Amino acid sequence: MTFELGTDGPKVLVVGVDGSTTSLRAGAYAAGLARRQGAHLVVVYVSRPGAFVGMAPGAAAVARQADEEMVADLRRQAEEGAAIIGLKFTFRSVAGDPYGELVRIADEVSADGVIVGASTQAGHRFAGSIAIRLVKAGRWPVTVVP
């Protein structure tokens, strides 16, 4: 019998965060899992540029600034948490459709798993949440954190 050193677990995990309570829980869960497995964590924030279309110029500027502040806050939280637990991570902030960007980045980094928070929007029971769409894509194991 030969003993194999190392782990058969994930090497790269992707977690989607958007500042919501469930996404922050997903981030914490993913950080713990990545730390225990010695995996690299890719933290992804996706802004929706289309959300600013149709807004008055002043309102759009305020919304963009709030989005930039959200990115800075999430990046800071990730850096502080990673420093405390000794986690290797990358923070990616991109613009576009959250589902499409998570799929693109997970494929790009050869993710072994994707972690997202459960949607709290009632309409997603009928139209489908990002988590359901990721599961249906069937390209990686998907963990949905409540």
UniProtKB/TrEMBL annotation:
Matches recorded under InterPro entries: Rossmann-like_a/b/a_fold, UspA
Parts of the chain that traverse the membrane: none
Limits of the UspA domain: 12-146
Signal peptide per UniProt: none
Assigned protein family: Belongs to the universal stress protein A family.
Protein name stated in the entry: Universal stress protein A
Organism: Phytohabitans rumicis
Lineage, broadest ranks: Bacteria, Bacillati, Actinomycetota, Actinomycetes, Micromonosporales
